[in-house]
Amino acid sequence: MPNAPTLSGELPEPPEKAKLLLSNEIAPVEGDITDTTALSTFIIDNSINIVVDASSAYEAAGKILDGVINAATIRQGALAKDNMIGPKLGFVYTSGAWVHGSQKTRINDLAPVGSVLSQGKPATPVAWRPAHEQDILAARDKLDVAIMRPHTVYGRGSWIWSTWWGPLAQAAKLGSISPVQVAADRTACPGVVHVDDVAAGFHAAIDRIDGRLGTWPVFDLVTETLSVVEIMENVKTFLGVKALIEYTGAHENPFLEALSLVSKSDASRAKTVLGWNPKRTEFLLNLPIYLKAWQASQ
Ligand SMILES: NC(=O)c1ccc[n+]([C@@H]2O[C@H](COP(=O)([O-])OP(=O)(O)OC[C@H]3O[C@@H](n4cnc5c(N)ncnc54)[C@H](OP(=O)(O)O)[C@@H]3O)[C@@H](O)[C@H]2O)c1
According to the lineage, what is the superkingdom (predicted)? Predict the structure, then answer.
């Protein structure tokens, strides 16, 4: 909850993460989002219109959804007592491209995920996610929903790229000329999208969540698909590394396996339905900017 002023009228010092949010003009709230009752109470007490789950609270995703449905049910019930209806509570869920698994041919976000009809098997870390997406879609009697599936996000901290870029940055630092081992399959081909374009996609979905997303409110957000070799050779050139790269595979590690998926997904529906117009394209051309930002955030 927002910090209460002290008797002297001064606000107490907020925790570190709250300070970061405050400095970005976002009102932080302290509380446990996985406490279903606390979450629904907070939504009602603060007249929240739309909840965006952008957390990585994977094991608790169901509890967060339950809290949001609970709030919507209470709100609908209160209005029903006065024979009234109101707008539905909005819920935007951050899923991701890994639910598609690897593809052999081009697909889009109408392709079913986690089913016998799917080309690929969801990556192990998100094997639970197709069922969670279904739970969200099944709650449309109570909620206006959107499910957003960004592909691998770059820009600013680019934390997810550290696994691949880290060994090359280390080799550059040491001036090493022996082969640099990168824990990826040589065939890896991720879809990529800049964090600003992800935000724009979410905004576009939020703007249209009141029934203007059609019957399938699920959107992949991706601007390019690029092979790991192409990406890493460009990283190598920029960092001035002379050594060869050795792709050592995913070592049966679920996270590394997910990074090594092959994406052949496009985002044409996000463009036509949401009017999404990604502006931060040309990942390789602008790679030096993203690498410098990533290095600065390490
Ligand atoms: N990064 C990508 O390339 C990418 C691509 C597609 C989809 N996604 C999806 O986007 C979502 C966010 O990922 P991200 O990359 O933005 O991760 P991130 O930078 O690690 O952010 C995750 C946030 O969730 C918060 N969180 C985790 N568990 C929580 C809990 N139990 N209660 C409250 N907050 C909790 C974390 O807070 P703390 O820092 O305090 O732990 C953190 O602020 C995930 O669902 C992920 O699957 C990410």
Answer: Eukaryota
Which residues does 251 contact at the CB level (< 8 Å), separation at least 6? 183
Site to probe by mutation for ligand 1, drawn from 16, 24, 51, 55 as the one with most ligand atoms within 8 Å of Cβ, is 55
pLDDT at residue number 151:
98
Beta strands in the chain (DSSP E): 50-53, 89-94, 143-150, 152-154, 180-182, 191-194, 218-221, 224-225, 245-247
Question: Does the 88-158+191-225+264-283 domain belong in CATH 3.40.50.720?
Answer: yes
Split at pLDDT 50, 70, 90, the class of 12 is low
Domain ranges of the chain: 88-158+191-225+264-283
Query: Which two tokens mark 171?
Result: 């080799």
The pLDDT value given to residue 30: 86
Considering the entire predicted model, what is its pTM?
0.95
Q: Pairing mode, if any, of strands 180-182 and 89-94?
A: unpaired
